Amino acid sequence: VAIIPPARSGDRFISVYRTLIRLETEHGSVSSVEAAFERAVHACPNNWRLLSDWAVVLASNGVVDRARSIFFEACEIAGSLHAEPYRLYALHEMSQGDFASARQILLKGALEMSKTGDGGLGGLTGMPELFHTWAICEWTTGRSMRRVELLLDTSLRLVQPGPEGSELRAYVLFTLARLQFALGENILAEHCLSLCLHENTMPSGNERVWKLWAVLAEARGDSYFAERCVDEIERLHARDDITMNYAKFVR
Question: Which residue has the higher pLDDT, 4 or 75?
């Protein structure tokens, strides 16, 4: 690795290295991207976000073992500062089918974050996302649904209040609605969906919310409301078409 002059090292130069990484990602090869990450990490050795980003890029290119070792290093550096590297590491293990390892990583992240004193309250340190991912991990492996529900409830309680946490809150509420539907608790599922729509900030839009609500309405014999849900889905599609056509027009 090339020696980085002290005047060009440290976190205040992080944007320069990120620009280099982005350019190599867009125009370079896998090896040149990795070289850019190595240079950035050498200059900013305590930046866990760089390491996590590097590991994600490696994982997306199928360099599994190398990605795993860098995820581990990111977690070691982050310690109790942020839960995100643990969550990303666990997602990597889940993508490889190793849910047992993912569960241990998530547990370690939660235990580390508990050392902060506030346990990541307010959603400022990635704890709501970690517990949401943990719930998905447990659900996927067919573990106790009650445990999944507790993890989702914990995630929801830790979401930052107000508009700042609106998008994440909507996403957790939608997952809770899916869980209640799977448990046969359709009334609770509809309640969660109504709260989700109240946030109106689902990351990928509200189409999935209306689709699930249409299924729930049909299950309780309310064909009228199910049709209204379908109408809303069609309205969303029409709005998306208009937006796409406008974007082509102004391009």
Answer: 75
